[in-house]
Backbone:
């Protein structure tokens, strides 16, 4: 997934101008419908890339608008599997795993928890650990209670991107790591 809103024009023919115009409209639409939207999405990605050395985004289906939508994800919860690398940079993903927490009520809404799963602890602020797995063909979400949801997307590519700053012989590092 590239986040450029300008596409080069190899020649000035009418067909090439139409093609690049279409690509620019598609790119602008992705940013307009991203979560968070537009500038906030780009700011979040840039902040994490500079401040944390890594940034992550996923393309998810937007069932309401029947379009794909780009979502920012916290790179601290992302575990990318590399299919191909150049040096220490991941250039193609084999899969992506996210581990994060959601509220118990959200887990119930998603079908990842049942009312009896909380046991005797009826804490309204209870969090549920969730693992999300995405590969070239499948998307799966599993809760700590063993409930899962999965879907085949059959895209042939992992609908995610994982970026990191370049640093020879090291994983991505923060621009500010020497100050922490």
Residues:
């Amino acid at each position: 997934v590239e986040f450029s809103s300008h596409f080069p024009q190899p020649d000035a023919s009418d067909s090439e101008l139409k093609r690049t115009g279409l690509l620019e409209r598609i790119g602008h639409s992705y940013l307009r419908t991203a979560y968070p939207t537009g500038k906030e999405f780009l700011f979040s990605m840039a902040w994490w890339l500079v401040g944390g050395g890594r940034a992550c985004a996923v393309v998810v289906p937007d069932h309401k608008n029947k379009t794909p939508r780009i979502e920012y994800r916290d790179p601290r919860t992302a575990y990318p599997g590399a299919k191909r690398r150049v040096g220490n940079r991941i250039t193609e993903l084999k899969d992506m795993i996210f581990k994060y927490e959601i509220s118990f009520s959200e887990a119930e809404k998603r079908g990842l928890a049942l009312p009896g799963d909380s046991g005797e602890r009826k804490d309204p602020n209870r969090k549920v650990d969730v693992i999300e797995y995405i590969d070239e063909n499948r998307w799966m979400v599993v809760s700590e209670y063993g409930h899962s949801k999965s879907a085949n997307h059959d895209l042939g590519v992992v609908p995610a991107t994982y970026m990191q700053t370049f640093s020879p012989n090291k994983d991505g590092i923060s621009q500010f790591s020497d100050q922490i």
